[in-house]
Amino acid sequence: MMNIGVLALQGAVREHVKALEAPDVEVTVIKKVEQLEQMDGLVFPGGESTTMRRLINLYGFYEPLKAFAAAGKPIFGTCAGAILMAKEIAGQAEPHLSVMDMTVERNAFGRQRESFEALLSMKGIGDDVEAVFIRAPIIRTTGTQVDVLAEYDGRIVAAQQGPFLACSFHPELTDDDRFHQYFVQMVRESLAEPAV
Ligand code: GLN
Q: Cα(149) to centroid of ligand 1, in Å?
């Protein structure tokens, strides 16, 4: 059995828990730092990245999350979660956890398009992946180690760097759980070949 945690400091976590379900997966709602130790993988949900960061600091999650990433354990950040993972945030002096070599731009689709749905073609996953965008960021630039998994309207909306996965949208808000299951497979593989 592998353990995947969903960071539950803010935002909806129930849908993530459901999308991660698999016979060999135990999903844990993470509210305390001590729970992280048992986790083989972690999901950062959407919400509001500055609020989430404030709560990360308040509850002492900052260093433990950095250590989790430094150990090479898989992390999947969705929307605000992806912003937490970026090395650079356009227009902001400091990033948050800085685990993926990419620059993100917050609220990049503008006011007219606060939320919308799209079907994406995703590398390694398939076509017609349903994606719900809510005040979504975009991934503006990626480093050489980062693999672009999906674009929408010529903009990068999903990417992977080794054990780290990020997307601009909310894959948990649809019945299509392929993207979460792609992450589950990453966790499976990381356990088969432990990080050095
Ligand atoms: N706009 C939010 C932020 O900047 C992210 C939105 C979301 O997670 N749905 O943090």
A: 20
Where are the strands (E) in the chain, listed by range? Answer: 2-7, 25-30, 41-44, 75-78, 86-89, 100-105, 115-122, 126-134, 138-142, 147-152, 155-161, 164-167
| Each residue's pLDDT tens digit, 98-150 | 999 999 999 999 876 789 999 999 999 999 999 999 999 999 999 999 999 99
Q: How many domains does the chain have?
A: 1
**Distance between CA atoms of 72 and 167, rounded to whole angstroms?**
19
Q: What are the tens digits of pLDDT across the range 28-87? A: 999 999 999 999 999 999 999 999 999 999 999 999 999 999 999 999 999 999 999 999
In the chain, the amino acid numbered 107 is N
**Structural domain boundaries enclosing 151:** 2-192
Q: What is the ipTM of this complex?
A: 0.94
Q: Which H or E run contains 166?
A: strand 164-167
Q: Is 172 a catalytic residue?
A: yes
Q: For strand 100-105 and strand 126-134, is the pairing parallel, antiparallel, or unpaired?
A: unpaired
CATH classification at residue 70: 3.40.50.880
3-state secondary structure (DSSP) of residue 85: helix
| Contact between 139 and 48 (Cβ < 8 Å) | no
Atom of ligand 1 nearest to the CA of 83: 10
